[in-house]
Design a protein that fits this description.
Structural class: alpha+beta
Number of helices: 5
CATH topology of one domain: Endonuclease, Chain A
CATH superfamily of one domain: VSR Endonuclease
Number of strands: 4
Largest sheet: 4 strands, mixed
Strand order of the largest sheet: 1-2-3-4
Oligomer: single chain
Radius of gyration: 16 Å
Shape: globular
Strand content: 15-25%
Length: about 140
């Protein structure tokens, strides 16, 4: 049985900013998005630049209540802000995984293994297998 999904509040004023961020993604965000979109991670739907409460997270899967953040230069000097932000997201039941921008660019395979491991350990089984290409059941 699937868990019931709670409504996650967000400030409507963030919608335009999120759209701007989606249209102006960093190279690391673009790279990771190629691996998260179209249900490639065990069939889970991820959204990018998703407004949640007073914040926008880089990637979010509602069914997993998982946010993925890529920390680049825009996070420099914002340790306290990021800590407060993460505590607030966690208070909403959202788990946050953080990666450095250079990690995503230089070691994407390890980043994907970390995300895969988190999903494997924390998710309820899903009937949809990972997207592995165009093979059919008759192949």
């Amino acid at each position: 049985m699937k868990k019931s999904l709670n409504i996650i509040p967000y400030k409507h004023k963030l919608v335009e900013r999120a759209k701007y961020l989606r249209n102006n993604s960093t190279p690391a965000e673009k790279l990771l998005w190629t691996k998260l979109k179209k249900k490639q991670m065990y069939g889970y739907v991820f959204h990018r630049q998703k407004p949640i409460d007073n914040y926008i997270v880089d990637f979010f899967c509602r069914e997993l209540m998982l946010a993925i953040e890529i920390d680049g230069f825009s996070h420099d000097g914002k340790y306290e802000y990021d800590r407060k932000r993460q505590r607030r997201l966690e208070s909403l039941g959202i788990h946050v995984i953080r990666f450095l921008e250079k990690e995503v660019i230089k070691d994407l395979d390890n980043v994907l293994r970390h995300i895969d491991g988190w999903i494997t350990e924390n998710a309820e089984p899903t009937p949809t297998p990972p997207n592995r290409g165009n093979s059919s059941p008759d192949s």
